[in-house]
Amino acid sequence: MPPTASLLMETKDVTLDAEAVFTRVFRMDFTQPGFAVMVLPAETSSHELRQHMAILKARLSKLHAARWGEGLEYLSLGRFDQQNTTRLHLDGAPERSFLMLGYEPTQVRSEFHIADFTRCAHDLGISPSEFLRLHNPMFSSGAELLRQYLVSLSDWREDRPRIVVINNSMAAQGTFGATHGVLHGATILSPDSQASRVINSTMMAPARFATCDPAMHVQQFLATDEISGQILS
């Protein structure tokens, strides 16, 4: 497993680092990790964090359009105060989809987990969807199979705002626009009912998968002070 420090990107300007994020996340082979973690300056406010997320999404959309002729649109937007341990999983979304999470600073310690299930599927000679059907990581046998493909971040600057971009795809290799997805999960090490662990969550996909114009919901997501769950879904 690479050292945690090498997987974290210190950034002040997400626009300047967008191409590096695109390379890490929108991968066509297994030389890249399939996710990126950007650590923002400590003074970044919640509203500024979400603005950075929107700016980064716009830049990634342009890069995606340049590569595959189609931009990215939001499928969901939400804000959650979450201290639940989650097993390795894909979020429910189209087979080509990308998750962007904005973590606000917290005293609640956690480990963040990424499992390269598409690489495991490739090594087994099966498709990503077949892997999930045959070796569901929600069960111990599937999780054990992924052990050598697992990266766990235990010291990932939870005292700072962070943007995490994850390839949530499961499209079969060789199909148009297919990139290699990963599973994600988290272990809460020190739950604290008196503390907050706020996650600003967005899901993106190629524009063909969008079913509505998200502009109004995006403005609400950027402006709200409420932590009320889904804004667009």
Structure overview:
The chain is of the alpha+beta class and 233 residues long. The protein has one domain: Double-stranded beta-helix (4-Layer Sandwich). 30% of the residues lie in helices and 27% in strands. The protein has seven helices and eleven strands. The protein has helices at residues 4-7, 14-25, 46-68, 117-124, 128-134, 140-145, 215-223; strands at 8-10, 35-39, 72-81, 86-89, 98-103, 110-115, 150-153, 162-167, 183-188, 198-206, 229-232. A seven-stranded mixed β-sheet has the order 1-2-8-5-10-3-11. It has a four-stranded antiparallel β-sheet with strand order 4-9-6-7, with no helix packed on it. α2 links the parallel β1 and β2 (35-39). α4 (117-124) packs across α5.
Describe the structure in brief.
The chain has 233 residues and is an alpha+beta fold. It contains 7 helices and 11 strands. Strand 1 (8-10), helix 2 (14-25) and strand 2 form a beta-alpha-beta unit.
Which properties best describe this structure?
single chain, 233 residues, alpha+beta, Double-stranded beta-helix, seven-stranded mixed β-sheet, four-stranded antiparallel β-sheet, 11 strands, 30% helix
